From TrEMBL:
Cofactor(s) this protein cannot do without: FMN
Residues reported to bind substrate: K73, N118, R119, M120, G121, F122, N179, N184, N249, T250
Top-level taxonomy: Bacteria, Pseudomonadati, Bacteroidota, Bacteroidia, Marinilabiliales
Domain of life from the UniProt record: Bacteria
Record organism: Ancylomarina salipaludis
The protein's name in its UniProt record: Dihydroorotate dehydrogenase (quinone)
NCBIfam families: PRK05286.1-2, PRK05286.2-5, pyrD_sub2
InterPro entries xref list: Aldolase_TIM, DHO_dehydrogenase, Dihydroorotate_DH_1_2, Dihydroorotate_DH_2, Dihydroorotate_DH_cat, Dihydroorotate_DH_CS
Main location: membrane
Reactions that this protein is recorded to catalyse: (S)-dihydroorotate + a quinone = orotate + a quinol
Gene designation per UniProt: pyrD
Task of the protein: Catalyzes the conversion of dihydroorotate to orotate with quinone as electron acceptor.
Amino acid sequence: MSLYKLAIRPILLQFDPESIHKFTFRCFKLFQKSALMRSLVSAQFNVKHPKLERELFGLKFPNPVGLAAGLDKNAEAFDFLGSMGFGFIEIGTVTPKAQDGNPLPRLFRFVNDKALVNRMGFNNQGVEEVVKRLRQKKTEVLIGGNIGKNKITPNEEATSDYIKCFEALYPLVDYFVVNVSSPNTPNLRELQDKEPLKNLLNELMQVNRSKEKAKPILLKIAPDVNQSQLDDIIEIVTETSIDGIVATNTTISREGLSYSKDQIKQVGAGGLSGQPLRDRSTEVIRYIHDESNGSIPIIGVGGIMSKEDALEKLEAGASLIQLYTGFIYEGPALVKAINKALLNKEI
């Protein structure tokens, strides 16, 4: 058992989830300032080998294991997180203006099921603050920019918010993820409907093509879409020529939780992540891969709590994977374990 699971995690679990997250990030920001600390952590967790490298949408990833958006919302600790063995870090979701997000409490653990429920609501300090931090980047870690719209922006004007974020982050990130699938911003998921989604992606691609060098744009989708919606998404991704799909975001379902109905009800609304999401996320990845004949690159995320879960996502058709809840419950040793498993298995 890793030091994290043996000694650190039991202490972290004694505190309110969001409070301990803020404390942890204060530590990460402190550690990030030290090249020696980054080097020591990298020596412990980084697995480097040509077999782990992946080339996708014009980028070379040192390994296929990334950190999903949501953890480093404000681009505060990406250099230090990169030293933990990740092949890439996705920051955000970032919106044009700073916003507080939803009222507290808004982050909850279901420890027995290795799950979290969050209703954060795109809380972030706004794209200008994120830009300032990205300009101070010290390492070569690949950065994805996950972009969204402000809560007060009506859906009819949402495209403008995505374009503002795209323009601001364009010089500083390696790829973009369009987030229209969070369950925690009112009516956001309506942007997944066929016409609004097609219009949004077409306009973003138009701006992207006007640049000297276009950046990869991916779409992050919900696990709660039905087969017909998935078919529409595959068609739209092909039509608009965006670069891929991130599958999946959190779910509004509570299936797979072992807790009582009253305990689940007490937590309330929000997106469920972690182990209960694993099978549905894999199912969505496999469907997209099969229906598109493998033509759409997929970043697989959702319920990866072990090296076996990671291999399952890759075998289902994901080209890269991301951790979030698995990283919180298992620590950076999980990143190392997945990369070591990949070295021993041809994928």
